[in-house]
Amino acid sequence: MPIKMLHLLFLSLFIIATVSCRDGSSVIDRASVPNIDVTGTELKADSMLYSSKIVAIFDQYILMPTWKKQQLFDLYRIKGDSLLYERSFLEEGNGPNELIIADYSYNPSNKQLLVEDPNTKKALFIDLAGKQDIRKCDVFLANPEYFFQQHIHETDSTVIGLFTKKGSQSLIARLNLLNAQCEIIDGLWPNDEFMGDPAIKQRMYTRSAILIKHPVKSLYFYAAAEGMYAEIFEINRKQAFNHQPIFSQYPVYDTKDGMNPSCPGDIAMGLHACATQAYIYIMLHRGTLQDFRNTANKPLEKETDGYKYNNEILVYDWQGALQKIYHLNRFVNKFYVSDDDRQMWASSVNEETGEDIFLYFDL
User: Fold this and answer.
1) Which of 40, 188, 225, 236 has the fewest CB atoms lying closer than 10 Å?
2) Are 88 and 75 in contact (CB under 8 A)?
3) Per-residue pLDDT for the chain (363 aa), expressed as one digit of tens each?
């Protein structure tokens, strides 16, 4: 995901089309599962935090993107209920080991971070297990026709990414990190009855969307950024199959400007999610796109009134069944759950100071 600015890769499209289908249902039967109240503890940071996201937590360290000037990532050590600043790394710039903006994916098996500037396709590997050595990665440059919006590790040597490519009718592709070979994976193409140029549909379903892999199995979770559309599916070599919808309300969009999909004001604002071997944890964003637009002219009295904050976490198994709901005592923005499903870390904000904070929950 981009951490310094939003990036748009415009395609030349010459069609005006509209999709008005709101297929499926997004009804959540909250009364059918356990509803559990959990209380968070604020982690006291020894320096100002410049992030509301968590890339990974490993070896009692928390890695986060940062909007600190001229830096892209911060590393903190978790000690009790404290966050202790360790270092910043990867500078913003045009130098050999610098990037302007960064899309990133973390590989827990070797503790390696793959970071790419989607505008220049320059990419770097960062070793987080040792001395945090940095080395060049040319696989994105070798595939100039593919524009990856997000990528996640399939294996140590391959990533699966949401992408756009002119003429393609798929949302995901596999990129080999050893030989730069890229192959499209068919089968992930929502049936929303859109009749226009496939590039418009690709943009709608890849921009700011979520793609998560099961830690062990070849299972994937996908969610669109707008509307309430999310599903679980499997991947074999070149095909996505066995689709299991969780939310099946397609986003509504049109192409009035001839290039980019746009949504009506009453559309839902998507979700945030993370996953473990046992569960997928989902936090729905509140409000509609129009609510978000209104804040541009009328700032919120409280930051946590924003659409990306919520205090309800829906917990699904990898078969798509709702298992339980956590009700947090604080509104949070992003969160990360431990591999054993016993702990959660989440970002929020101090309403008095406006500063970013992180909370810890026992689940």
Assistant:
1) 236
2) yes
3) 444 333 333 222 222 333 333 334 567 899 999 999 999 999 999 999 988 899 999 999 999 999 888 889 999 999 999 999 999 888 888 888 889 888 999 999 999 999 999 989 999 999 998 767 899 999 999 999 999 989 999 999 999 999 999 999 999 999 999 999 999 999 999 988 777 788 889 999 998 999 999 999 999 999 998 888 999 999 998 999 999 999 988 887 777 766 677 777 777 778 999 999 999 999 998 877 777 777 766 666 666 777 788 999 999 999 999 999 999 999 999 999 999 999 999 999 888 888 899 999 999
Closest C-alpha among 199, 204, 173 to residue 186: 173
3-state secondary structure of 172: strand
Tokens of 144: 């100039």
| DSSP reduced 3-state for 289 | helix
**DSSP string of 251-283, one letter each residue:** PPEE-TTSSS-B--TTSBB-EEEEE-SSEEEEE
Q: Alpha-carbon distance 236 to 186, whole Å?
A: 10
Instruction: Find the DSSP H helices in 169-327.
Output: 198-206, 289-297
On whether the CB atoms of residues 284 and 312 are closer than 8 A, the answer is: yes
Greatest CA separation for the chain: 57
Amino acid at 354: G
Local structure of residue 301 (DSSP, 8 states): S
Q: Both tokens of residue 198?
A: 């496939």
The residue to which tokens 């990419």 are assigned: 123
Q: Alpha-carbon Rg of the chain, whole angstroms?
A: 20
* β-sheet bridge partners, residue 233: 220
H or E stretch at 313 = strand 310-317
Whole-angstrom distance, CA of residue 305 vs CA of residue 261 = 27
